[in-house]
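Ticket #4471: structure output looks truncated?

Reporter: J.K.
Steps to reproduce: submitted the chain below (82 residues) through the standard prediction queue, then opened the result file.
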Amino acid sequence: MTNFRDDLKLLFDIDVQIAALKNEMQMAEAKRLVLGAISPSLASLMPAANELIGKRIDVLVRAKARLEDLIDKEHGGGDNLG
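Returned output as attached by the reporter:
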């Protein structure tokens, strides 16, 4: 049962990371607006930063889905994991 508990903890940790990255992306948009008022050239760098954050979110979302599938196969009854 320890593996199951560890797997659930990992799912929780992934969820926390996804939420933090989504928050970071929202904050980056706010920073872009402020930077745009100060220096349009600096603000133009923000979409690249958001793209990287988006890629990190995508990787974590796919990893979470895969882990949920594996947990369901190994332990069954994973309907309430996501």
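Triage note (M.O.): checked the attachment and the full token line is present. The mean pLDDT is 87.
Status: closed, working as intended.
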